[in-house]
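Sample entry (185 residues):
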Amino acid sequence: MKRLVACSPVLVLVLALAACGGAPQKPVAAGAAPAKTASAAKPAPKPAPPAATPPAAPEKAIPEKAAPEKEAPETANPLQSAAVTPEKPEPTEPEIPVDDDPAQFMNGGVADLREVLGDPVLIRRDGPAEVWQFQGDSCTLDLFLYPGDGGALAVKHVDLRGDAPDERRACLARMIRARIVAAEG
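Predicted structure, serialized as tokens:
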């Protein structure tokens, strides 16, 4: 009896494996071709359609509360949209090379200033001198003109102002480029 109890786990394992093996096959005699089984000759039959179940008794419909519709977010996640559709930089025209040094206007006359910068937004007369003011997107250029020996006004002092010192010259360059584009267009 003890021996049967000790062998029972092995016996259970052997029986379980035998059940998984499928249909038993006939042994093949030496030198004979294996016989085709019925399952190998014919394709497997299609499973029968499920049996129709009788209709269930109608239940009372319980009205469900409609879930509020979620609005689509107006802006996509920048990390997600960057992974899906990488942004291509818009083609820009090459920048027109200009001199962004405000000292270039020193000793310049009225005609020279109008050619490079256009008309000032403000002209202030202070005795014999004039202050011409040009306004950029983030800077202000003040040119102080004084009469020379022949009486013609010429720039004797330049003041380029703005919030960010490193941005002032770039702002002046944009002002000059805008004037060139306006004169060409």
